[in-house]
């Protein structure tokens, strides 16, 4: 997404906000500890080895972007942190091409610091390895492909590193990669992932709700020309998405990603949509990524097998299954503006009404414009 923003929207700005969905309580001094960790990120830079890895494994990233990334530095001034009692407040603001890289590391820092500062002890490395191996063996028996999507709400860096090493050791052809590019490099596996909701949320701010999906998909293909071909479907509900996912897009994109609502109902809608367009669903893939665990994957695989391709991006159940309650935290874009410098609130209307995010008045407007009940 950052490469797209650098190319298409270099003057766009964005604001983000931390959302504590799990209503977790943060200990005294948490904000200061988080600020210190974020300040240390200012010294990070892309190494020559990392740049070469990206060039070799991600050919869709062009040399000019990799040169830009080599010069990129995190600016802690873009992040404002405050603590009110046991509640944590985080806002991010600045040029979109810069601030787009804050979400994942901040969430992973919040999660790791939360367990550390609460003095919560996890199970041993041996247990983590055993549990992960058992899960991988179970997924192998289902004959499905699994990727690690678990950086944002992992227990810690050490746990995720151990989990990915175990997945690689025992996964065979079942384990296909990780969305954590650093851990993909040190484990010699494929970096894998998709675009996020904020891509379409920005396009709604710039072009309006009715054009958000269409323009977001058009601009994605303008940059990637067929690479990275999994389309995220639920920024403004799946029904609205499929109304706009016409034959052109359905043929251009390799498949779609499910991230909210009932996965089997989504699979049924997706199969029907491809069939209505005269496209063989078996030539396409659904990437499932919504709070997956083994039982969910069993149910989904039983429905999809022989009907449509499927893959699974599994997060918290892999990287935060350590005997402690996992966190439920997110960071979402809240406002965006382009060259006109007029800020527009942005919203997300997923297939689960309880997961709507954004300004209530703008949510109501989006529902009216898009005829969402």
Short précis:
This protein is an alpha/beta fold. The protein folds into two domains: 2-120 and 326-342, Alpha-Beta Barrel (nicotinate phosphoribosyltransferase); 125-319, Alpha-Beta Barrel (nicotinate phosphoribosyltransferase). The chain has 17 helices and eleven strands.
Unreliable stretches covering 5 or more consecutive residues: none
What kind of sheet is the major sheet? 6 strands, parallel
Q: How many E-type strands?
A: 11
Radius of gyration: 20 Å
What's the architecture of the largest domain, going by CATH? Alpha-Beta Barrel
Helix content: 40-55%
Net shape: globular
What does this molecule look like?
- The protein is 47% helix and 15% strand.
- Strand 2 and strand 3 form a beta hairpin.
- The longest helix is centred in the middle third of the chain and has 18 residues.
- The radius of gyration is 20 Å and the shape is globular.
- It has 17 helices and 11 strands.
- Helix 7 runs parallel beside helix 15.
- The protein is α/β, with parallel strands linked by helices.
- It has 2 domains: 136 residues, nicotinate phosphoribosyltransferase (Alpha-Beta Barrel), CATH 3.20.140; 195 residues, nicotinate phosphoribosyltransferase, CATH 3.20.140.
């Amino acid at each position: 997404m950052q490469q797209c923003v650098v190319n298409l929207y270099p003057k766009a700005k964005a604001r983000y906000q931390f959302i504590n969905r799990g209503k977790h309580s943060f200990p005294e001094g948490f904000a200061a500890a988080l600020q210190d960790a974020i300040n240390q990120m200012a010294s990070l830079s892309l190494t020559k080895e990392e740049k070469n890895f990206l060039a070799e494994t991600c050919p869709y990233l062009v040399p000019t972007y990799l040169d830009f990334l080599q010069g990129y530095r995190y600016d802690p001034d873009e992040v404002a942190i405050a603590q009110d009692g046991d509640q944590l407040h985080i806002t991010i603001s600045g040029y979109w091409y810069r601030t787009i890289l804050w979400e994942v590391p901040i969430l992973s820092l919040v999660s790791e610091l939360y367990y550390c500062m609460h003095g919560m002890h996890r199970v041993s490395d041996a247990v983590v390895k055993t549990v992960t191996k058992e899960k991988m063996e179970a997924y192998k028996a289902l004959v499905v492909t699994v990727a690690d999507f678990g950086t944002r709400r992992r227990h810690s860096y050490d746990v995720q590193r151990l989990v990915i090493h175990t997945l690689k050791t025992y996964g065979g052809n079942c384990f296909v990669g990780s969305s954590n590019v650093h851990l993909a490099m040190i484990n010699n596996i494929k970096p894998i992932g998709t675009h996020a909701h904020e891509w379409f949320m920005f396009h709604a701010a710039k072009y309006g709700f009715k054009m958000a999906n269409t323009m977001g998909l058009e601009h994605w293909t303008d940059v990637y020309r067929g690479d990275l071909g999994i389309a995220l479907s639920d920024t403004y509900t799946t029904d609205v998405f499929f109304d706009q996912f016409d034959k052109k897009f359905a043929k251009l994109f390799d498949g779609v990603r499910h991230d909210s609502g009932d996965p089997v109902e989504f699979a049924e809608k997706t199969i029907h949509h491809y069939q209505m367009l005269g496209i063989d669903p078996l030539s396409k893939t659904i990437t499932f990524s919504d709070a997956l665990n083994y039982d969910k994957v069993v149910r989904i695989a039983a429905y999809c097998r022989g009907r449509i391709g499927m893959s699974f991006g599994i997060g918290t159940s892999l990287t935060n299954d350590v005997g402690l309650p996992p966190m439920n935290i997110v960071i979402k874009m809240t406002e965006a503006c382009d060259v006109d410098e007029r800020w527009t609130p942005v919203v997300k209307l997923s297939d689960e009404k309880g997961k709507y995010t954004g300004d209530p008045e703008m949510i109501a407007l989006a529902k009216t414009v898009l005829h969402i009940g």
